[in-house]
Amino acid sequence: MTSKADTTHPFIPNTASERAQMLATIGVEDFDALITDIPEQHRNSSLRLPDAASELEVATRMQALAALNQDAGTRPSFLGAGAYHHFIPSTVGAILQRGEFVTSYTPYQPEAAQGVLQSGFEFQSAVAQIFGMEVANAGMYDGPTAFAEAGLMAARVSRRNRILILDTADKRLFEVAEAYARYQQVEIEAISRESVLNGDIPDDAACIAFQSPNFLGRIEDVQALTDAAHAAGALSVMHTYPTALGMFKSPGEFGVDIATAEGQPLGVPLTFGGAYVGLFTTKQRFIRQLPGRIIGRTSDTLGRTGYTLTLQTREQHIRRERATSNICTSTQLIGLMVAVYCATMGPSGLRKVAELSYHKAHYVANAIGALPGWSVFGGTGTFFNEFAVECPIAPRSVNRLLAERGIIGGLDVSDVVPNGMLLCVTEMNSRQDIDRLVDALSDIGNGGAA
Amino acid sequence: MSDGVVPNASVADMHDRRLLMDRSVSGRRAIEMPTADVPLAEMPNDDLLRDADDLQLPEMSQPDVIRYFTLLSRLNFSIDTNFYPLGSCTMKYNPKLNDQVASMGGFANIHPLQTDDSVQGALEVMFELQQWLGEATALPGVGLAPLAGAQGEYAGLLIARAALEMRGESHRNVALIPDSAHGTNPASAAMAGLDVVTVKTDEFGNVDVEDLRAKADENACVFMLTIPSTLGLFEPNIIEINNIIHDAGGLVYADGANLNALLGLVKLGDLGVDICHSNLHKTFSTPHGGGGPGAGPVMVTEELASFLPEPVVVKSDGDVPSPARRERARVRAQQYHLTRPDNSIGKINGFHGSFSILVRAYTYMQSLGGDGLRAVSENALINANYIQARLRDRFDLAVDRLCMHETVLSGKRQADRGVPALSIAKRLLDYGIHAPTMYFPLIVPEALMVEPTETESKETLDRFVAVMQVIDDEIDNDPDTVNHAPHTLPNTRLDEATAARRPVLRWQAEKD
Amino acid sequence: MYPDDLKYSSEHEWARVGDGDVAEVGITNFAQDTLGDVVFVELPEIGSKVDQFDKFGEIESVKAVSDLFSPVSGTVTAVNEELEQSPELVNSDPYGDGWIMEVQLDDPSELDELMDSQTYQGTLE
User: Fold this and answer.
1) pLDDT digits (tens, 9 = 90+) for A378-397
2) Which DSSP string corresponds to A308-345?
3) pLDDT per residue over B404-447, tens digit each?
4) Is the Cβ pair B501, C39 closer than 8 Å?
5) B325-370: per-residue pLDDT in tens?
6) Which secondary-structure segment (H or E) carries A422?
7) How would you write A127-176 as a 3-class SS string?
8) How many helices (H) and strands (E) does chain A have?
9) Is the CB of B496 less than 8 angstroms away from the CB of C40?
């Protein structure tokens, strides 16, 4: 029998008497004998942290901290710009409860990880389908890192060293690409749409990389950009918003060479920016230059179908300093959420989400455009579900006034558009929420402070 | 018997491995979306729109979606179902409270670009986690942005380069890396534009100090030390090593993959380490998820803190309300802010890090407290040494000395009897135990790296020892069974050569 | 195992000089056996220059990757495109269907730097 005093912590099973037995088996007198290699003057430096708290206490404190945040689940939100509040079907959360998925490791032993591998293969299949591309890898950290790795991959494929990014892309994409390329002997430069379409592209351009819908929500002329890139002997690299592909033509249809996206809109909650999953797709002939993990189909010694990690010689654990990337993870669990989302939504569901977002966003844009003092920025170009408006007062003040009315406003983009605010509308915004927003903006425009 | 009809309830569906698209039936659906409650807008130009039949996703009913993914889950080993002694991966129990907290609406539904004043609870979590990781490592500058260990490494190397450049020493372009290191170390070094110079390991499993001294010259940028090493050993010469690097003008980077061995026993900063990262998905119990997501915060000395990746959470100095007034939080002065450190290496990912993982790690640290975290490391060390002591008569040790949180066995004796380490690993699966890490570190022949972690009981360890002894006996009595293992899983060994030669990477319609 | 009509390098490549100054190049039986199941051969481009004992490509097995070093200097005149579909030919027939490239020699006297079958086999012991 184990006495109460003999136990340690709910997560640590062995009792003091068991530890004593084990130390005897090890052949040492006490625990200190195990750590004699640690320099004595620094040994046993105690941790100045709070004492252990019970589950009830921790849950209560964390609930209180959660309650300090204003979340999109309890109030209307019109914030997008790279992270999107979309509907998540109940199936996603239900499968995410399965400890067999949540608490497994990278599938290095494929026979004991067919669930992770087959669901990852489903992820690759769904992502490749949505993008209209030949192959997808098993997932990257997030959208911007996928985009950065796409630029580096384009440099490897083309054996050229200038990565040109269209200046309508989100500046986060530039910043992350710059951090990834800093010591890689490649240059990252911005280029204007006009230069690309006029064929004013340097000879050593590895790729023309662009975002569509772009940072301000507008659909780029993907075909023209891709053709111009190819004419210059460069690759076409597209960063996109996967939900938009429910209704808009896929990168594959335009002949894009590498297409990436933030996977979060496909079934992953906002969670303050992470953990997300980067989607990475390309053409079959480039697969040996892909970064990250890839799952392939094969058979076992009895001829039955099974799945395994494949093309592993590209990766850091084999090629070390010559690997295509240092990435180890495939953000598999978030990829699983995407796989369950796609299986649940199906083709009609994904299209419906895209169309609802499109129609609601256009309804909002029309309504705001009709308000005196407000205008929609960017004229007649096509947008999906994001657009910038020019506010009559500073966007920061608009957001503060919206917050007082219990609404999370758009992103302040006054560094790009004078008094600009980038608004995003999805299927989560009911007409009632939308009318509240428009009424509030009308009030604010009229100088109504509250 | 017709296909798929098997009289065994537990495996009835295990061999039906058809993919979703093979199960898809046109017209089925798993979800109903509402109709538009706004007037429909004009649709864009047709040449922008996708054909309705171009999107080939599965059409499934909702029960079939759930049953399919539940079936897949049952084809997996996991911590919740199996002992998982995978060396250097720290497969410990992942407390369920952590997941519950991460899914709270106030954490799950906040947008990364909301104003700081609307996310004070989230920022408090991040701020406190920064403080606590700084305390655990005695490296007070903490950046939570890196999304995994490899990103933490890369961030750490960018910091080292930036700091040396600021000292006017941008010529330093060498990363010294022990031959026992994990593959991400050289891969990250290469990404950071550093030339890799390999440092030897001596016969005791320690860094060969003379080799290091000879190679640490005026070009040394950083020494990347895994501590404890991938041999499961604490480097006894660490202070001398760090002095050699510092005297040469370089910085010491500690790969914190194995921090589970050190909590409350020693702090890396006290030993002279300048930079380290920690894999929260190892030491701080956040789930591995079948290969991510992780989180790899980077910790640095006070002197290097201004180089941390963006963003870092700071607490404002002004009038700070007392915790007792927390219920009036919505009107209190804003306390926490996201900032870009002065000399920041910049943004290495889209937003603020793996917040859902950070919140789990913070929850875990509260559950353990300072003493509990020390108990974690103590028990991890005892468990590993216990396995080593009980198996040493059957299996060679990579290095014959007490280990830290993991022990590296060598299957040399077994290989000489015709069974390689790979087969021992595969045979363990038949006994419901996940394989140890195999053939790593590279310098140990037939390596089997075993890390039990603190969350396994003595009974579990005793069963593992018994199974290893049984397999060792099988090598004499029935080597074929071991060499063709596993026999009891959904698949026998897979043909990895064909998978790589003729890659099939997604579902494709059967060709008629 | 190690045909007498070939010349061998210490990096385990072979060269077979036929008519004129053209050499066929591949990897030895020892090399293919050590690598295990070959899954990919990165072939050089036709027309590219290779230098004796310098890297000209890579060869991959499931869990290893190795550099290929040319036993001769010259210009690549042909590559074995069969290997793109069937890299396993390197395992099954390293001196025949598993050849890798054909090189127009710059300097046939370089062949003297290579070993004959017996000397090469001596290095494997």
Assistant:
1) 867 899 999 999 999 999 99
2) EE--GGGSHHHHGGGSS-S-----HHHHHHHHHHHHHH
3) 999 999 999 999 999 999 999 999 999 999 999 998 888 899 99
4) yes
5) 444 444 455 699 999 999 999 999 999 999 999 999 999 999 999 9
6) strand A420-424
7) HHHHHCCCEECCCECCHHHHHHHHHHHHHHHHCCCEEEEECCCCHHHHHH
8) 13, 13
9) no
Give bridge partners of residue A412 from the DSSP assignment. Answer: A421
pLDDT tens-digit profile of B450-498? 999 999 999 999 999 999 999 999 999 999 999 999 999 999 999 999 9
Q: Which residues of B134-160 are buried (b: 16+ CB within 10 A; e: fewer)?
A: bbbbbbbbbbbbbbbbbbbbbbbbbbb
Written as six digits, the tokens of B275 are: 């930079």
SS3 A431: helix
3-state SS assignment for residue B36 = coil
Model confidence pLDDT, tens digit, residues A276-302: 999 999 999 999 999 999 999 999 999
Q: Work out the angle at residue A443's Cα, subtended by the Cα atoms of residues A82 and A390, and round it to the nearest 5 degrees.
A: 45
Place of tokens 């974690």: B376
Phi, psi of B190 (to 5 degrees): -65, -40
**Residue type (1 letter), B156:** G
Q: Who's near B414: CB < 8 A, 6+ residues apart?
A: B395, B420, B421, B424, B446, B472, B475
Cβ within 8 Å, pair B78-A294:
no
Report the residue of chain B nearest C87, measured CA to CA.
B501
Which amino acid appears at position B329 of this protein? A
Q: Which residues of B288-314 are buried (b: 16+ CB within 10 A; e: fewer)?
A: bbbbbbbbbbbbbbeebbbbbbbbbbe
Give the Cα separation of C111 and C74 in Å (integer). Answer: 12
C40 contacts in chain B (CB < 8 Å): 500-501
- C90, two tokens: 């390197």
CB A284 within 8 A of CB A135: yes
Closest C-alpha to B447, from B3, B80, B86, B12? B86
A267, A89 Cβ separation under 8 angstroms: yes
Question: What pLDDT is attached to residue A436?
Answer: 96
Residue A329: pLDDT band with limits 50, 70, 90? confident
User: Is there a contact between C40 and A313 if contact means CB atoms under 8 Å apart?
Assistant: yes
Chain CA centroid to CA B123, Å: 24
Residues of C in contact with A318 (CB under 8 A): 63-65
**Which of A13, A144, A287 is facing B349, going by the closest CB pair?**
A144
The beta strands (E) that lie in B256-331 are given as 275-277, 298-300, 312-315
Q: What is the mean pLDDT of chain A?
A: 94
Buried b (16+ CB within 10 A) or exposed e, A418-445: ebbbbbbbbbbbeeebbebbbebbbebb
Q: Enter the pTM of the model.
A: 0.95
Q: Kindly list the distances between the CA atom of residue B428 and the CA atoms of A112, A230, B436, in Å, as whole numbers in the listed order.
A: 11, 52, 9
What residues are paired with A188 via a beta bridge?
A: A163
- Give me the DSSP letters along B360-379: HHHHHHHHHHHHHHHHHHHH
Per-residue pLDDT at A398 exceeds 80: yes
Take residue B138 and report the two structure tokens written for it: 């005695």
B316 contact partners, CB below 8 Å, separation of at least 6 = B333, B334, B335, B336, B337
Q: Which helix (H) or strand (E) holds A64?
A: helix A55-67
| pLDDT for B8 | 62
Instruction: Please report, for residues A301, B446, B455, B475, B484, the alpha-carbon distance to residue B487 in angstroms, rounded to integers and kept in the order given.
Output: 11, 22, 28, 16, 7
- The CA distances from residue A106 to A149, A308, B327, in Å, are 21, 11, 42
The pair of structure tokens assigned to A415 is 């560094």
- d(CA A346, CA A357) in angstroms, rounded, equals 17
Handedness of CA B282, B284, B289, B293 (dihedral sign): negative
Taking an 8 Å cut-off on Cβ atoms, the answer to whether A248 and B95 are in contact is no
| Residue pointed to by tokens 């509030």 | A440
Cβ(A279)–Cβ(A330) below 8 Å = no
